[in-house]
Amino acid sequence: MDQKKTEILWREEKYNVMFHSQNYYIKIRQSMKNKAAYDEISALIEQALNLTPTEGSMRNACQHMWGYFKKVATEEEKRQYEQLIQTTSFSELLTFLRQLAEKYGVTYLLESRVLER
Fold this sequence. Notes:
α4 (55-66) packs parallel to α6. 74% of the residues lie in helices and 0% in strands. It is built from seven helices and no strands.
């Protein structure tokens, strides 16, 4: 498999992995720097996604995704984000982040599998 296919897989799954496990995120990011094979990255992603996300890992991933909007979001959107991140309603928060990605045309996030929930 070529490196390009591996990079696309990682781009699509990066926030999904982060949502499940910061440790796996770091491990896979390092493996990507070392040009790991597609099968190795794919297996690590699968392992990460089999873990039950913690509140901390879910919050961390959402905060990273929010970073795409914090400078462009309206005051109302900022209030809504703050409210959702505090209530830890992560399914609602992911839906909200997807709506923002659509509104602001953030293709990178729209291609991320974490927002397909």
